[in-house]
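Subject: Interface between my chains keeps coming out wrong

I've been trying for a while to get a sensible model of this assembly. When I model each chain on its own everything looks fine, but I need the whole thing in one frame so I can look at the contacts. Pasting all components below, labels as-is. Any help appreciated, I'm running out of ideas.
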Amino acid sequence: MSKTTTEILIIGAGLSGAVTALQLARSNIKVTCLEQGQWNNREDYPGDKPDFELLSMGPWHANPNVRKSPADYPILDDTSDIKPMLYNGVGGSTILYSAHWMRFLPSDFNVHSLDGVGKNWPINYHDLAPHYNQNDIDFGVSGIAGDPAYPDFPEYPMPPLPIQPWGERVANAHHKMGWHWWPGSNAIASLPYKGRRPCVQRSTCRAGCNEGAKGSVDQTHWPEAIACGAILKTGARVSRILLDQHGLACGALFKDASGNTHQIESEIVILASHAIGSAQLLLKSTSPKFPNGLANHSDQVGRNLMMHPLSRVIGFFDEPMMSWQGHWGQSIYSLEFAETRPVHDFVRGAKWNLSPSGGPLSAALYPIDESRCWGKPLHQRIDNWLGRSAVWGITAEDLPNRQNRLVLDPNFIDSNGDPTVRLIYKVSENSKRILKFMTAKAVQSFSEAGAHQTSASSLVTDNGWHALGTCRMGIDADQSVVNPWLQSHDVKNLYIVDGSVFVTSSSVNPAATIAALARRTAEYIIKSRSTIKRAKI
Amino acid sequence: MTLALSDKQRNSFAEISNVVYPGGYNHPPSSGLDIKNAPLDHVLRARNELVVPLIKILNQYVTEPNTFLSQLEDHDFKLIMIIISASYLSIPQVKESLEYNGQQAMSLGRSGFGAEELVFELMQQPKRYRDV
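Reply #2:
Try treating it as a single job with all components included. I did that and got this:
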């Protein structure tokens, strides 16, 4: 078994790991990151190939249980209403994400005080605002500031991408109805930016961006982090975090792609492995001091899993709009129904984002689970859909529930001989009511915009992009896993910087907030470098 | 390269495809497109993990296509629809009928993002977030 050392070990090279590594490396801190997947070549992404939709349904599917890449680990999901969507590799899920770049609303941090549900965050919007601002520059976000749904913040580094004919139709409709809308903010370049090419509107963002226009962290962060001295080891799957005699994290065991075990020693350990991966690793890292999993004296590790239930409404228009092109990526978004209103039969609300509707295979098949259609009706469906439709994606704010969780299932053993992670997740009654209300309103939106027909799905199960909450942040060490600096209550030199630390989910896409939290913690570590707890190695 | 489907299996595939895509709305019928050969092979080269499950499904085909499709389990129905649709929609005549030429790289216009005048109106509106 080989042994190496580093000052700070980061586990996971996705969004939060990259943001953290870059900040630390910019301050000349010795960082090593272990990533179970590999680098991708942009040329290999299927988006610019004729079979991109076919490949996106298989080897480039966002569900690791469908994709089954060697970098993926199995996730038992038959006990979950929503299936996990993520990517393992340098860049993590930013490789396949849609790059919707949304800040939390100020109220999202105080849902208990305002609406009597969930828990308050121990930090607020203004704590994160400077980090949102800086990350907008690092990620290269396009958009326009001034949305009245938010406090003022600096202009984005690039102007918005075109909102497209379907966006203009819906924007005009919302304007007439007095409903909120705003041009989409996306981590997608609309101009040449820091060596990235601008978006070419191929609308294949969720199959990887061949142009490098999308702000995936293999493009935006890792090259600079490595140039600053960060070490990134790929094909390195961590099996266990190690603990020293003082109860401090002192490194990790990992396996390389050939199955050989290695040890890395570190003074500080930072987990950045996704809400599923991080909680899984903590639960696997048992010891006499932590028999229920590392940093888990609160029994909160793995609990409060939130997955952002999503519904979808498609609007069909008479006029051809080439709606297989564009960015995917949001054309526009609406926060009209994001906040609690007394007249609703639910609390909190949803964020809407308008997208193009995909190519011919999407027109023929999506969503294949909901209708068995062939013959003339299938031709009619394709004729209606292809190029003439747009999609409202509606994300419900998911509230924490300790019964929604991930556990290790000893009945299923993974390739390391460890129990496999199992998701146990039920969509709440509140979320169901949100989605029911929102789909009706989205139908109204499209109708007002001139759609001759709409089609609504009340819950899209294959859409668990936003797993959150499994190592939540809090002041009370008996009720949370990390403190407001994302430092473990139990293991003082262990930090968790991914979406697992979310206290509640907001209804907006979490990437910008994950990145802001990670950056804030990295800056805390840098400022406290001489005083923070470290293992002696 | 010829993939490992027998003539009988290919004929079954064609019969089913002809019912799934009989033609209409200016789209050509599958029956005139030799879907069972080059288009099917194209799909199975791209997704060769589908060959074995497809053969398994086609080997069950004994009745007329509509009944067969109606009786397929969800998983098998989904799989055969993906293969048939991807085969059919990859054929140049079909793409032409759809006026679809693939996902093209396009230059971004420089005339603005659209609906600017509405955005400037919205900017003048009072803030609507709940300050806390």
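Reply #3:
Confirming on my end. Residues 76 and 104 of chain B are 32 Å apart (CA to CA).
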